[in-house]
Design brief:
With 286 residues, the protein is of the alpha+beta class. 43% of the residues lie in helices and 17% in strands. The chain has a seven-stranded antiparallel β-sheet, covered by helices on one side.
Amino acid sequence: MKIVNFSLEQGNKYFGKVDGRRFFIGRRVSYEGGKGLMNIEGQSGQSYDRKTFRPRFGFWADFIHPTAMAEGALFHTLNTYDRALFTFSFLQFAAHVPDGDFVLYFRKLLSLPLAAEYFPDLQLIEGRICRQAGDGSSVPLETSSSTAGLLDYLNPTRNEVEDTEVIQSAKFIHWVQNDPLHRDVQVAVGIDNFKSKMVGYAAQYKLNGAEDTVCAVIADIRHQGRAKSVDILMALSSSSPLASLLKLGEPKYHERLLTLRREIDKLRADGTLGHRHYDLAARDFV
């Protein structure tokens, strides 16, 4: 079993130690009246690299790249300070959504060989994340309508940075930094999520035959939630759909949009984006 030791240093930085290895957990931050941890610091080798995953996932490894870069790209990207209470991964999976990306991701993690080392008190029962109680019974932490139990397990409140929050964050960070199977799960869940949601977006926004760049921006908008469907439809009906879509969220999300434009431009320049179109029947880009 992995034992986490941690320390608070320099006033607001938490560092952990597992198996004798010291690592950065996160910085204590304040946000909209609450407090939590943030970790967006790392090295290039700890980030998503589309070329590494292209042999397995093909074009979809490239398709998620702009959003991955906009989300920070680090496999250990962490946020426990906003309403989601616990957000983790290179695509920032959010734990507050029932049956959402984080829940799907955590379920997959609990099937990995090292799961019992990091979370010995958790198990999957009938496909749900459950916690073993002291009397030997099992308590579901998530259902189709709520993740309240899971959030309490990961980060009880936004009032303060609790020990539980630090320890659970440290487990996720140490695991993903030291187990390639964990990183593979992150990418697989992220791509599966984008693929399945593109089917719905194609039907909702009439994207059958739409260029990959347009689809990538819409997928990013919906992933972040920065615009309503009526705004997306209005942008699509304009004379320059891509340019209009890339304005949605200004000025509040200006930096993210700059990153998105830059990464899309790079992929267009190298020939990765700009010549495929979404085929709803095939549920893929052709």
